[in-house]
Specification:
heterodimer; A: about 475 residues; 4 domains; 7-stranded mixed β-sheet; 9 helices; B: about 300 residues; alpha+beta; T-fold; 9-stranded antiparallel β-sheet; globular
Chain lengths: ~475, ~300
């Protein structure tokens, strides 16, 4: 197929059919099947075949580059037919669009390829940050509409639970539409701005750092304040008299901490605000916020009371540092035992850098979660519950756009998948509103027959490969969360 | 690589699927086995090369139609012109406004000319040409939610009704709309007439100058759109109930005019959650939900 980029404006002329549409970048032709993707003509409704052997990349490649086509779409056997672009109807009272049989290791395998329409779906978002995003159970909004809520805090991160059937179809029409758009964008790895009632505004994009109140997050904290003391106590020993690791959760104090005691670090007469948990560990030294260590403070000295004159002495030194090493300051007590900020000594500066180095890059991760309902399963077999049982018995492998999924125990086929592992643009929507996501069931042909599969609709893989409606893409990254 | 139209039966083994470029047809006929076979064979024969035939006159098809003069040569192209010409004196319209209906009509015509059928339809992306022998009927479901247990309204077209064409136009469709209607479904004597009228009526459902309506020149979206620089609707924000009624009433006014002129047999206009039905007894009363199974025998408009 020839595509001639026209002069200046990146429009391309599609000659897939005699309509010969001029297509602008990012737009599709009259057929909605061919589109201009960064100046290249690509198919947008293909049945995507994932080639397992190709290394990381996970990107669209042109359906056909200019030049001679070698006639080869994919090479057996390392391909996997995905449901992306398979098309679907709702309810799925007729067999899934494609039921493909292919031989894998001499076993005749069947992949039932369909795109599920999921009214029961949502995303679980993990945002690596120590900054305060909002209170637990607070409403999360997109464009002012409630689309989910803040759920638990986890290690170095805050979880959001977005979507679900109540926001999709239980509220106003606009709420449903906005929820659907936000879920689709998040699932397609696009950035979405979320505001949390009584909290922060955060831009979430799967595989990218969160942007909290306009500031991109860089690192996860190395551990809580207490853990940081434990990890670095030896490196501080002899270089400074006191270290306070400011943390929204547990602020650590070196001289009082078990790690300091083991090193015989002397009392410094320091006094912390907040509630002491165990020696050297303090809860609630300050309100949560987006300042030091996930608190709302900008002056770390505000977490300290006056030093005890019986133990403190002028000239004593103190390092205050956040759990990411992003904030740090060095102080010396003056004659009145008041801390005065001084130039950070080089060796302490190195320890702060070490904390930074031990903090992993902060990411947003998005897991799409959906339940395969009765009707979708009916597209696969004429006795839907047998498919469910077969999945539970691990006879049937479930994938989403070729990516591995976690299937929740319990009833139904409710699965989660890391959206960064699906090919680009894998998710769509219907105006229900509901999301359209690819789902594949792979099993032995004999098992498929046994569970009441639509045997008369099984097509050999070769019949798809000879079809022009296929698009070869490289396989998505195999390591969770990794990006090209 | 040569272009190969897609010709095949859908998974149900019952409906024929024909696709070539932007043309996507779902075809079904009922009758004796032999007649059905003959009808499908005729559909496939007529389908082959049809797109090339149309594209041969594409530049002219994309120009505003003249109310009286027609320079087009092809049979389908001329049908497109004939369908839009009655509207051309009042409004800007190109023959492209009737392309889907005209193609559906052409394929249906090939089928009925070659077989005795009880009932047949050619559905070209929602623009439908119908054949109904005596006593037959066709049910069209109007749905706004494909997962709901039924449809919002149903239209039942009986053999003794004049309508043999059903078309839907609106801002969510594949082609652009100058208006804000979510959907305007029209019944007309032929599919091409229904297609043209649905376009015109959907354009008339509008609130000119309303700040919540986002518009954009058509050629900014599709460089070769027949609508040129005309502003097409991209988004519709919040509207008050009064505004929704006003917009629908503007469309209904247009629909009544074409009904009186005998160009259409009826129309159902929908914007947000409101619907106005103009002059057709085929549309059943609101609130009556038929099971999807029955509606699916006909066609579901979403």
């Amino acid at each position: 197929m020839l595509t001639e980029p026209t002069a200046a404006d990146d429009k391309i002329r599609c000659d897939a059919c005699p309509v010969m549409c001029y297509i602008k970048p990012g737009a599709a032709g009259a057929c909605d099947r061919y589109a201009n993707h960064d100046g290249q003509l690509v198919r947008v409704d293909p049945h995507i075949l994932l080639e397992r052997t190709v290394s990381h990349g996970g990107r669209l490649v042109p359906f056909q580059k200019t030049g001679d086509w070698d006639g080869k779409i994919v090479q057996e056997p390392n391909i996997f037919v995905t449901a992306i672009g398979a098309g679907t109807t709702y309810p799925d009272y007729k067999p899934a669009p494609f039921i493909v049989s292919s031989e894998i290791d001499g076993v005749d395998m069947v992949t039932v390829v369909t795109e599920g329409i999921f009214s029961y779906c949502g995303v679980k978002v993990k945002i690596d940050t120590d900054r305060y995003l909002g209170p637990e159970t607070a409403t999360v909004r997109a464009q002012g509409e409630a689309i989910g809520h803040v759920t638990t805090s986890e290690y170095g991160s805050q979880m959001l639970s977005l979507g679900g059937v109540h926001h999709l179809t239980g509220g106003s029409k606009k709420e449903g539409r906005v929820t659907c758009d936000a879920l689709m964008d998040l699932s397609n790895c696009k950035p979405v701005e979320l505001t949390i009632d009584g909290g922060a505004t955060v831009v979430v994009q799967a595989g990218h750092a969160p942007v909290v109140n306009g500031v991109p997050e860089e690192r996860m904290r190395v551990g809580c304040g207490s853990a940081t003391i434990g990890m670095f106590a030896k490196q501080w020993h002899g270089k400074v008299d006191e270290v306070v690791v400011v943390d929204d959760h547990i602020t650590g104090v070196l001289s009082e901490h078990q790690a300091g005691k083991l090193l015989d670090i002397a009392d410094t007469g320091i006094k912390l605000k907040g509630r002491r948990s165990t020696p050297g560990r303090y809860f609630q030294v300050a309100e949560p916020g987006t300042g030091w260590g996930g608190t709302k403070i900008s002056d770390p000295l505000s977490v300290l009371g006056p030093f005890d004159a019986k133990k403190a002495r002028p000239g004593m030194t103190m390092l205050m540092v956040s759990t990411t090493g992003e904030h740090a300051a060095f102080y010396e007590l003056d004659a009145a035992l008041k801390p005065v900020e001084k130039q950070m000594p080089a060796d302490l500066g190195l320890s702060v850098e070490r904390i930074q180095e031990n903090c992993e890059p902060a990411l947003c991760t998005v897991l799409f979660m959906a339940g395969a309902g009765g009707s979708l399963r009916a597209g696969v077999t004429d006795n839907p519950v047998r498919l469910t049982r077969s999945v539970k018995d691990a006879l049937t492998r479930v994938t989403s756009g070729g990516a591995p999924v976690y299937v929740w125990p319990g009833g139904g086929i409710t699965f989660m998948v890391d959206v960064t592992r699906l090919p680009a643009g894998a998710f769509g929507y219907v105006p229900t509103p509901a999301l359209v996501a690819p789902i594949e069931f792979t099993l032995r042909l004999s098992d498929y027959a046994a569970l009441g599969g639509h045997m008369d609709h099984v097509r050999p893989l070769a019949s798809l490969k000879g079809n022009t409606e296929t698009l070869q893409i490289s396989s998505p990254p195999s390591a969770p969360g990794s990006r090209p | 690589m040569t272009r190969t139209p897609q010709i095949g039966f859908l998974a149900d083994g019952r409906r024929l699927h024909l696709q070539d470029g932007p043309i996507d047809l779902i075809v079904e006929a009922t009758g004796s086995q032999a007649d059905k076979r003959a009808a499908y064979a005729a559909a496939v024969r007529r389908f082959s090369g049809l797109l090339d035939e149309l594209c041969g006159e594409l530049p002219l098809l994309r120009q505003a139609a003249h109310p009286a003069r027609c320079l087009l040569q092809g049979k389908v192209a001329r049908r497109m012109h004939d369908a839009v010409a009655p509207f051309a004196a009042d409004c800007f319209i190109t023959p492209m406004a009737a392309v889907a209906g005209a193609v559906a009509e052409e394929i249906l015509g090939a089928m009925t000319a070659n077989a005795q059928l009880e009932r047949a339809y050619v559905n070209n992306g929602g623009d439908i040409a119908l054949h109904l022998a005596d006593g037959a009927q066709f049910t069209v479901g109007l749905a706004d939610r494909p997962d709901a247990p039924g449809v919002l309204r149903t239209m039942i077209i009986h053999a003794d009704d004049p309508a043999r064409g059903v078309a839907t136009s609106g801002r969510h469709g594949r082609s652009f709309s100058l208006g804000i209607a979510d959907a305007v479904t029209v019944l007309a004597p032929t599919a091409s007439q229904a297609d043209a009228a649905a376009t015109i009526i959907a354009n008339a459902v509008d609130l000119p100058g309303h700040p919540a309506i986002v518009r954009c020149p058509a050629h900014d979206l599709q460089p070769d759109s027949d609508l040129g620089a005309r502003p097409v609707t991209r988004a519709v924000g919040e509207l008050s109930n009064r505004e929704i009624e006003d917009a629908l009433e503007a469309g209904a006014h247009s629909a009544r005019k074409w009904l009186a002129a005998g160009l259409i047999d009826g129309a159902a206009l929908r914007l947000h959650d409101e619907m106005i039905v103009v002059g057709t007894r085929a549309v059943e009363v609101p609130g009556l939900r038929v099971p999807l199974g029955r509606a699916a025998e006909g066609s579901l408009h979403v």
